[in-house]
Amino acid sequence: MRAFIATRLSLDFSNELIRVSEYLKKELCCLPAKYGNQYQLSFARAGKIKWVKPENLHITYAFLGDIQPDKRENIIARMKAVRVDKFIISAGNLGCFFAQGKPKTIWLGINEGADKLEEAAKKLKANLAIDGFVFENKFFPHITLGRIRGYNEEMSGENINGVFSQALKLIDGKLSFAALNVELFESISDSCGQIYKSLYKMELV
Fold first, then answer.
1. Res 11 pLDDT > 80
2. Residue 64 dihedral angles phi and psi, to the nearest 5°
């Protein structure tokens, strides 16, 4: 099974981010009309961006990959050995991950709480490494909003900065929630997309 460790967003926080996603979905396919000839064709048709469902929005501490079911209890034990205090998480900037110059992922960064997330991720990964888990990517606290499946030559970071700036005004830099737990999830693929099943929930102190 494919597993990861993450914190789910609060319902209110998720609902506000869906407003942002809906705005981006509408605006990213209307760039020529709204933002002038400099953008030429659209950034991406809505159908080319796979938007994350509200119930699946989360912040990942560690992606574990494919694991055997009998490893679950070991992972839970390693999680229990980590002490993490409750903390506040607030919304940061919008951005994109690029691969070979092509945008691949639309994300929302973290402002307040980024250091706490990094500290928790470091502790969890250190404990999991005892069981042979290897984590190569540097931790970057963020919330994935959408994954770009299509690409055209007009897509660029410069082209979407204006849209991102307007989208952030919807939440006015004040969106936050209290991180109260960390969960071990199994990622299940079905005909409707991804389902994240909680296998263990660790309450923060």
1. yes
2. -95, -15
